[in-house]
Design a protein that fits this description.
Layout (H helix, E strand, L loop, with lengths): L5 E6 L10 H15 L3 E7 L6 H4 L2 E2 L7 E4 L2 E4 L1 E7 L4 E7 L1 H5 L15 H18 L6 E5 L5 H9 L10 E6 L12 H4 L20 H10 L3 E4 L6 H10 L4 E2 L7 H12 L1
Parallel strand pairs: 1-2, 1-8, 2-7, 8-9, 9-10, 10-11
Antiparallel strand pairs: 3-6, 4-5, 6-7
């Protein structure tokens, strides 16, 4: 037998670490089902400050931590933590940083006000995951991104990491949910997200403008290989863009009974 297919899940929410939601529930059940089906998995999410480390038994992985990521000319230490969902025999890796995640809620504070630096948090999270996967010396065949905080992963994979042996052959699936953010990213996002290999021509959907959910989603889809309608109702502009971009590789909304089979079939199709 050949090696098992390797699937990397990158998400902004997983139950039980965050309250149950559409994303959190899917990203709890799907990796387990994929693993039970014989594939190898790794799963990453941000270590938001509202996640109770003691109750969920998170601990820092010293051999993976310690790197600094430079964003907008400022060094930000990357801290990697891990926990296990025992019932699923599944580990979850957490991307942490004192400034971006440690003392924060998810994407908005207790009053519901979205964080002004959510733009930088998307950059740190995407880069942190990819650098950690390289340190793990793990080569994903399929990368499945869930939610807008993962939106830069497809761009980075296809442009900044396109020659990297860990990601050269990776295929990307992007799930869009009904989780639109309301506060547009400030102008200059197209500058601070830059890595070597990312060109002006890659950023036409966000260049020289404040970036809303539609623009960010289109950027993610531009560098993906397939897309999924993760919620029964998603932004109509984004849905139409995804459906037109991926004929035959756009999975419309699936029920809780059908999504696991539909998604795993899509993995095989993109490979």
């Amino acid at each position: 037998m050949g090696e098992a297919t390797k699937v990397l899940f990158i998400t902004q929410e997983i139950a039980p670490y965050l309250p149950e939601s559409e994303i959190a529930t899917i990203c709890r059940q799907l990796p387990q089902a994929v693993q039970d089906g014989g594939k190898e998995i790794r799963t990453f999410m941000p270590k938001f400050g509202c996640i109770n480390e003691r109750r969920n038994q998170l601990h820092e992985v010293q051999r993976l931590s310690g790197m600094n990521l430079i964003i907008d000319d400022t060094d930000h230490p990357l801290i990697i933590k891990v926990a296990s969902i025992q019932a699923a025999r599944m580990q979850v890796y957490f991307i942490d940083n004192e400034d971006y995640f440690h003392h924060r809620q998810t994407v908005a504070d207790e009053s519901g006000t979205e964080y002004e630096d959510n733009d930088e948090r998307t950059i740190f999270f995407a880069r942190g995951v990819l650098e950690t996967v390289k340190k793990l010396r793990w080569t994903p065949d399929v990368i499945h991104c869930h939610g807008w905080m993962t939106a830069l992963v497809p761009l980075y994979i296809k442009k900044a990491y396109h020659d990297d042996p860990f990601f050269r052959n990776s295929k990307i699936v992007y799930s869009v949910y009904n989780d639109d953010f309301q506060t547009s990213f400030k102008e200059g996002y197209d500058s601070i997200l830059r890595l070597d290999g990312v060109e002006d021509s890659d950023l036409t959907t966000i260049k020289d403008q404040s970036v809303d959910f539609v623009a960010l989603s289109k950027l993610a889809l531009d560098f993906s290989d397939a897309a999924i309608e993760g919620s029964e109702t998603i932004n109509q502009q984004v849905k139409e863009y995804a459906a037109s971009k991926f004929p035959g590789k756009f999975v419309p909304y699936q029920s809780s009974e059908t999504y696991i089979q539909a998604y795993t079939e899509l993995y095989d199709k993109v490979m």
